[in-house]
Amino acid sequence: MNLPNMIEAKKRSREDAKHIYLDDIKSDMYKDKKYFLKTYGCQMNVHDSEEIAYILESFGMTKIDTIEGADVVVLNTCAIRENAHDKLYGFLGRCKHEKETNNHDLIICICGCMPQEESVSNDLIKNHPYVDIVFGTHNIHELTDMLLNKIDNQNIRVYSIEGNVFENVKYKRDSNIKAWVDIQYGCDKFCTYCIVPYTRGKQRSRHSNEIIHEVECLKNNGYREVTLLGQNVNAYGKDIEDITFAELLDKVADTGIERVRFVTSHPWDFTDDMIEVISSRDNIMPYIHLPLQSGSDKILKLMGRRYTKEEYLTLYNKIKKAMPESSITTDIIVGFPGEEEEDFKDTLDVVEQCKYDSAFTFIYSPREGTPAAKMEQVDKKVAEERLQRLNEVINKYARIANEKYLDKVVPVLIEGKSEKGEMLMGYTDTMKLVNVSAPNDTIGKIVNVKITNVKTWSMDGEIVE
Ligand code: 5AD
Ligand code: SF4
């Protein structure tokens, strides 16, 4: 995107990126200060926040859970739907109040996908002068420098770098049991509703040897599970070297790490080789997130999704045939421009046929600068009503999928305390959330759990020998 305030885009090589991180920060400027970090959006953003946390903590800062009492606040934003704006401006209001009334020195940082949008960056500059630091998805590593060189004026750095791939990135990971591993940045698919190719740039894959090295280090440090991250993981490798995602998966499985997951898959690039590798390797989990978006050929075409309803169903059935016990989840958008009742019924038909384990469902949200935003929009009430009807069917099948687990014994990787406190929680290999009565020393272990009770979105169970 062209930002008027954008510092000239620089082209960096992979090697250069290695030297951007400061291992040893000598400055006392932020020593013993407190930071508050809030993250919205996808797993990419969650993982980016682990990098931001590393940078802040290398200054000697510690994390707190409230804006009140913080010296530095960071909001890592998501731009995928309109409600992102409400969240950003709600957050800014709270920060402004805190800065004006309690802490004039509060440093307010806004980062992530939203500042990559020209209108947002301009607005922050013009209308929110109390915001100190703004950086985009390509500039996280520069936070160190921005904090060290904070001056009275706003410090805004949002680059549009198409060629950047970062290696040797350091993270303060949220878990010491499971880890995110970026395998590719950006996306080339340009689905007509989606802002991601604009905010995160074109697809750039990491070299497989760097990925394998990262997974081996994680395994040696006691991690049990890795999730390979990308907007469209099955297009991995197409931009750099002679390697496919199926081959990468095989190599990652060879490291011997206990659990390998990956998100997100685009049906268009999902090959038979991938199905073969996933079904034949015990440590690749039988869980596939396969976004449908719509079941109507007309809408799929308008969305630029590159597959038809029939092609999607053929792929789905192929996966289920190879892995009958696998769980498959999806993303669906209702109310896309031009969606009529019969198009929506096609979506419901696919849901009835696939009986998804679960789904993320969304009302289409126009994103400025994307082709679909200029198409004729569907009435909001109609879209809301469709979402409700869709969710009823999704919930029905989510519950049915869980009911199959009742009284079964399944392996669960125990991650920590459950939300309600008393029990521990973890996930099955098929990504089902299970609350387990188990001793604390099972945290970090894969244990056999008998499912004693199922609900729509979680299950309860107890450890068996
Ligand atoms: N409106 C609604 N949902 C969207 N998604 C992406 N862009 C939009 C949009 N403009 C959904 C898609 C995608 C998921 C991450 O978010 O379903 O798979
Ligand atoms: Fe967006 Fe489509 Fe790329 Fe997914 S594949 S990130 S929906 S453009």
List the defining traits of the structure above.
single chain, 465 residues, six-stranded parallel sheet, disordered N terminus, binds 5'-deoxyadenosine
Secondary structure layout:
Elements: H1 14-17, E1 34-39, H2 43-58, E2 62-63, E3 72-77, H3 83-101, E4 107-112, H4 118-127, E5 133-135, H5 143-148, E6 155-157, E7 178-182, E8 184-185, H6 196-199, E9 204-205, H7 208-220, E10 225-229, H8 245-254, E11 259-263, H9 272-280, E12 287-289, H10 297-303, H11 309-322, E13 327-334, H12 341-354, E14 358-363, H13 380-403, E15 409-417, E16 424-428, E17 433-437, E18 446-454, E19 459-463
Parallel strand pairs: 1-2, 1-3, 3-4, 4-5, 5-6, 7-10, 10-11, 12-13, 13-14, 17-19
Antiparallel strand pairs: 8-9, 15-16, 15-18, 16-17, 18-19
Helix pairs in contact: 8-9, 11-12, 12-13
The protein binds 5'-deoxyadenosine and iron/sulfur cluster.
5'-deoxyadenosine binds at residues 80-81, 193-194, 291, 293, 331, 333, 362, 364-365, 367.
Explain what this protein looks like in three dimensions.
It is a single chain. This protein has 465 residues and is of the alpha/beta class. The protein is built from 13 helices and 19 strands. The strands form 5 sheets. It has a 6-stranded parallel beta sheet with strand order 2-1-3-4-5-6, with helices on both faces. Helix 2 links the parallel strand 1 (34-39) and strand 2 (62-63). Helix 8 runs parallel beside helix 9 (272-280), helix 11 (309-322) runs parallel beside helix 12 and helix 12 packs parallel to helix 13 (380-403). The chain is globular. It starts with 13 loop residues before the first helix and ends with a strand. 42% of the residues are buried. Mean pLDDT is 91; it is low at 1-19. The structure holds 5'-deoxyadenosine and iron/sulfur cluster. Residues 187, 189-191, 194, 196-197, 231-232, 266 line the site of iron/sulfur cluster.
